[in-house]
Specification:
Layout (H helix, E strand, L loop, with lengths): L9 H40 L3 E10 L2 E11 L4 E5 L6 H8 L7 E6 L4 H4 L6 E4 L13 H6 L11 H14 L15 H13 L5 E5 L7 H18 L2 E5 L3 H7 L2 E6 L1 E6 L1 H4 L2 H8 L20
Parallel strand pairs: 3-7, 3-8, 5-6, 6-7
Antiparallel strand pairs: 1-2, 1-4, 8-9
Helix pairs in contact: 5-6, 6-7
Length: 303
């Protein structure tokens, strides 16, 4: 006698179909995750080998004056590069042109290995601290409010609690949490520069550009800021490009030096570029008046 197998109830059929759909979703999620990880890995590998900044045959006019003449250089990820040279050598003009603040006469500038259209999405990854930060010292803006202005458009939609936490963490990294509610007009020169550094920290950055950021800061403040900046560079894996007049700090903290006097005179490590012969060529004297000799700071150990 033959026994006929009954077909499964409709509820069981639906359950089997549902399980098949779930399996398909899981497989799709696994494939999507694997693809994303592969792309991220490719991006990481590219970021290690490809320059963050590429400048090729750059020339810049300031009025009728040729301020930068046919300059080329590259910045690799995670490096700290200083631009040095006498007053009027075109140092500030060079970095402002790299940032797109001044129009170039000729040459090519490439950031993050992107074209101009692609660069728009990476602009928030660039931090900039200018030489001068003019403002009305009577304006009632607090330290935390200034740092909060560094939040990007997407982060402005975060909850107030989350934004306050991000601002606090940025201030904590520059050791200014006690000054969070202090008016910026009451800060010292060194404290103000650290607030601007916190402004750059409140969102992730890959490139930090400083235009004589230590101008107006006393010798002790310079040492403390330089040590803090070096520590943050290691933690954040920043690429740093800065204009500096302090050859002692350049020798201590920078990986490479660009010696500029409208043209690129020398480029390389501090030990190979900052020789007496090169300094004579750059500044016109064996001992540059801008080469400081600092005493160790007691406070710098806390940074």
């Amino acid at each position: 006698m033959k026994r006929h197998l009954r077909s499964p109830p409709s509820a069981v059929k639906n359950h089997i179909v549902l399980r098949e759909e779930e399996k398909s979703k899981v497989i799709l999620l696994i494939v999507a995750f694997a693809y994303k990880q592969t792309v991220n890995l490719m991006h990481q590998n590219l970021s290690v080998t490809q320059p963050i900044v590429t400048v090729h045959n750059l020339s810049v006019m300031r009025g009728e004056y040729l301020a930068v003449d046919n300059v080329s250089f590259e910045l690799l990820p995670g490096t700290h590069t200083a631009i040095i040279g006498p007053n009027g050598a075109g140092k500030s003009t060079l970095i402002k042109t790299v940032l797109g603040l001044i129009e170039k006469r000729s040459g090519k500038i490439r950031l993050f290995n992107c074209n101009n259209k692609q660069l728009k999405q990476f602009k928030t990854e660039i931090g900039y601290i200018p030489q001068k930060f003019p403002f009305d010292r009577t304006f009632p803006l607090t330290v935390s409010e200034l740092v909060g202005l560094g939040l990007n458009n997407k982060q402005w939609w975060y909850s107030n609690k989350r934004k306050r936490k991000m601002i606090y963490q940025a201030l904590e990294q520059v050791h200014l949490t006690k000054q969070a509610k202090q008016k910026i007009g009451t800060l010292s020169g060194g404290e103000l520069k650290r607030v601007l550094l916190a402004y750059c920290l409140v969102v992730p950055r890959r490139l930090l550009v400083l235009d004589e950021a230590l101008a107006g800061v006393d010798a002790t403040g310079e040492i403390e800021f330089a040590a803090l900046l070096n520590n943050l560079k290691q933690e954040q894996n920043w690429t740093i490009l800065e204009v500096s007049h302090d050859l002692d700090l350049v020798s201590k903290y920078c990986d490479s030096v660009i010696c500029l006097n409208r043209r690129l005179l020398y480029q390389g490590s501090p030990s190979t570029t900052l020789t007496p012969e090169n300094l004579l060529q750059i500044y016109g004297s064996l001992v540059s008046p801008t080469c400081h000799h600092h005493e160790p700071s007691r406070l710098s150990e806390s940074f």
